[in-house]
Amino acid sequence: MNNKSKEILEFYKITEELKKFALSDIAKERIEKLEPKVQEGVIKLALKETTEARRIVDISSSIPINSLKNMGKIVSKIEKGTVLVPEELEAVANLLRDTAKVKRFMKDKEYAAPTISSYAYSICELDKIKEEIERCIVHGTVDNKASSKLQKIRKKIYILEDRIKSKLDSILRSDKYKPYIQDTLVSQRDGRYIIPVKSQYKKCIDGEIHDKSQSGSTVFIEPAEVKRLQDELNENKLEEEKEVYRILSELTAAVYDNKKEVKINIEIMANYDFIFAKGKYSKAISGTNVRLNTRNYINLKQGKHPLLDDNAVPLDFTIGRSYRGLVITGPNTGGKTVTLKAIGLLTMMIQAGLHIPAAEESEMAIFQDVFVDIGDGQSIEQSLSTFSSHINNVISILDCAGRNDLVIVDEIGQGTDPGEGMGIAIAVLEELYNKGATICATTHYSEIKRFAEKHEGFINGSMGFDINTLKPLYKLSIGKAGESNAFLIALRLGMSKKIIERAHFVTYKEEKSYEDVKYEKPTKNEEEKEMHKKQVREFKEGIKIEEEKQLDKKELYPEDYDFDIIFKSKEYRKKNKLMSKHHVEGMTISDSTSEH
């Protein structure tokens, strides 16, 4: 399948998660190269392996898989005829021990996993080589018992080293040499035992100087009495090296003579590591093995996007029987894009031999390719606009898509004039349909909803929206286009039904009554209710404080305050104002005009 679609759908994130369950670098490299396949037989075998591995993982959490650490390097050295070091021979012995364990383990699990259990029959049990390595190599070194000659040589070395140390100790404790000794510490230079002597007394001790201190105050001398023993020790150490090399060469030769069998064991172990990684990942995502078909028919039940958490709303999705074009509408952030990505990614996972998080009765199709246009895909380097990038992707899809391909397009026709974008979208959908492709698209254009409703082979779908909470439900419904959320939201927020009905006519060129549209009044949650109660309490307490507060008269009423405003009627104040300016014939004013 094309790499661009795998990148958009984040297939690489699935392989990164899968790698976490593998132990060996060989299996991890194989997972990195994992691709969705198109051959039905290959896919079914890969899924069968995953299913059987999942059964074993459910039965037993302890599977004897070897990490195969450094085995590639070891095999390369064997083929070149290079002698292996003790640690590498131990790794070979561990491999042979673990492959024997795997063979026994898989034989016991044959009832649950007949196919992958049969792979263990090809394991070569090289017990003699394993036992010989284990006899000769202990804790990363050639053991004394690897050969009688080595045992004798090392015994001599031990005796000579003990004699040398005894001789040196006697020199250091001797009263004769005590004035000449700088320190009672025995050390080595180039494998020779030496003692520290004060520089001014270097001629007082018979021996060979091998080093001196930086200050020059101390020289390090190998006493003549020790030199003969030291020479004999070095000769025995040289014999020891020769014997160790001989033993390692023989062990390496035994492995070399069976290198074909060793390589087969490595391959089988790496294959089991890869297969069981798929089984462990299946358990981690609650995956299942669903039915497969080559009829471009998808019937997904309770499917989930594998990269989302367990709280994601399960997806029911069907396409490929009475229709092979689905147009999904719904609010922004309502789950349309996630739905498209889930369909594409689950298709790729199944075709890569992986289980998917869905109900067992689900059925998935094998597509030759999956073409995807999701997101703006904008290229800064090429200075392409969102629309240009989108159209380039669509052109590429139109050139390549055919009868057995799945095409996924998010917000088809977006990024340009709505009228022209809608026209392009419909023309593209028609062309893809004529090419025989299976199509999943999302849109905001109402004209495309009507197109899907009337065009043979297409159907509308919508993402649910709760008009009462004004929140998306992230649930796909197939068979009906989404209602106009903008109108319903405006209605919900108090806009006149008359205006909404007029807006509907302008948009859809049809009359529609919104009189019967019902919704619940918003209800406050507990937090909102508590906040409201708190505000009421604070308001009442504020009034009470103001009522109880004693204020000075001057603070309440300034000296020039007009008390008529309080004690006189409006009519009195009006007449009084006029008569204070000039005499008004027939106008009278009295206390009866005031308010009491």
Protein described:
A hairpin with a 4-residue loop joins strand 15 and strand 16 (471-478). By secondary structure, the protein is an alpha/beta fold. Helix 3 (25-32) packs across helix 11 and helix 6 crosses helix 11 (259-284). Helix content is 50%, strand content 13%. The strands form 5 sheets. It has a 6-stranded mixed beta sheet with strand order 12-13-14-10-15-16, sandwiched between helices. The protein has helices at 3-8, 11-19, 25-32, 40-59, 71-80, 86-108, 114-118, 127-136, 148-173, 224-257, 259-284, 336-351, 386-400, 418-434, 446-454, 485-492, 497-508, 526-548, 553-556, 564-567, 570-581, and strands at residues 137-138, 141-142, 187-189, 192-198, 207-212, 218-223, 291-293, 298-303, 315-319, 325-329, 363-365, 369-373, 405-409, 438-442, 458-466, 471-478. The protein is built from 21 helices and 16 strands.
Structural class: alpha/beta
What is the alpha-carbon Rg in Å?
45 Å
Lateral arrangement of strands in the main beta sheet: 12-13-14-10-15-16
Largest sheet: 6 strands, mixed
Give the overall average pLDDT. Answer: 86
Low-confidence stretches: 377-384
Strand tally: 16
Helix amount, in percent?
A: 40-55%
